[in-house]
Amino acid sequence: MSTCEQDNQRNPLLDELAMADKLSKIDQVIVVLSGKGGVGKSTVAVNLALSLALRGHKTGLMDVDIHGPSVPKLLHLMNRWPEMKGEEIVPITYESDLLKVMSMGFLLQGTEQAVIWRGPLKYSMIKDFISRVQWGDLDYLVVDCPPGTGDETLSVAQFLKEKAKAVIVTTPQQVATIDVEKCITFCKQLELPVAGVIENMSGFVCPHCGQSTEIFSKGGGELLADRYGIPFLGSIPLDPAIAQSGDEEKPYIYFYSKSATAKVFEDIIERIIFFAKDNSLGIKKESENKTPTATQPGDKDTKENISTLNKEASMKFAIPTHQGKLCAHFGHCEAFALIDTDATGKVINETYVTPPPHEPGLLPPWLSQQGVNCIIAGGMGSRAQQLFAQQGVNVITGAQGEDPKEIVEQYLKGVLQTGANTCDH
Question: What domains can be seen in the chain, in order of their start residue?
Fold first, then answer.
C-alpha cells in the first residue's frame, strides 16, 4: 500500500487526537527559522537543543528540512534507522537519551537520495513527525526548519503555533537580512511569537591570536531586531572550530563547552529560556503591535497599547553592587540595584535596596519577594544558583562592567560582555 493510500484510510479525528495528546506533553516549542540559506541555522538549532538538554531539560529536536536534512550529520547519527512500536515511531537518541531526534535524513537510504515531493506529502510527513513520534514528556521541542517560508515552515507554524516561539537566524550582511526580514513578517501574519533574532557568523575569530575581524560586517541582526521591536538574542562569531565540529560530526556545544563561543551560546539560550516563558513578548497581532515609531504623537489608543505591552513584558533585574558599581560576588554586596525595564529594553525605574544579613539561603527568597525575575552577577556559587532556580529567578554570571543600568541595557540588547564565573563554591 502506498503512502498516499495509507493517508486516505487514516481517520482524521484520530490524527487530531494523537496530535493533541503529543502536544499536551510538550511544554515549549522553539522553531528555528531563516529566510536565507547558508546562515548556519541547523548548526544553531542543534547547539541550542543540546544546550537545553545539558542543562537538564527534557529536550527533543525535530528536523523538518525534508530536502536537505543535516541534523543527522551534525549529531553523528548518519545511517541510523528509527524503530516502530505499533503505529508509532521511536526517535533516535543522542548520547544515551540526552536528546531525542527525528529527521527525514533517518528515512533516506543514502546521502545522494533526493526527495521529490509536493506540498501535501510534506504536510503529511510533518504531521506524522509530531503525532506519531514517541516524544514523551518534553520541556522543549526544538524544530529546525528549511530556509524560507514554504510548505514545511507553514505547516510547522500551523500545527505548533499555540506553543511555539520563533528564533530567527541571520548573518550580518544586508543581502541576508533582506531575506530574513520576510521571516519576521511571516511570523507576524501567522501570529507566531518571535523570541528573538540571532546574528550568526558575526566577525571571524582568529584561532591563533583571538582577534575578531568583521568579514561579513556586523550588526545587521541587531538592527533588524530593533526595527521590528523584538529581542536581539546575541551574536555568534565565525569560529573555525564550529565548521570543523560540523565536518567531524562533533556538536560544538558538547565537545567545545569551555570555549568563548560556547559561552556565547549559553548566554543566548539563557535569553531564549526567559523570553520563551512569556507569550506577550515578540510579534503580536497587527492590532497589538503598534510602536511609537509607527504612530503619530498623541494617539491615545496607541499609548494604551504600548502601556499594556510594556506592563505584560516588564522585567525586574537585581545587580549586586559595592559603592554603586557591580561587585564580584552577589553575596558580598552592600546593596542591590533593582532595575525595572519594559518590553523595548528601556529602563523605567532604578532603586537601591540594602539586603538582610547574608545568611545561607536567605537572599534568593528575599529577592524573589522583591519581584526580581533575573539577577546579573560577576560570580555566584552553584548552591546559590540552584536556590534561585527554585524561586524561578534567572541567573547570569560572569558579567563585566560597572554601571548597573548599562549592564541591564547591554544584556537586553544581547551585547553584554561575560567571562568566567568569579565564584566556584
Answer: 11-282 (3.40.50.300), 314-413 (3.30.420.130)
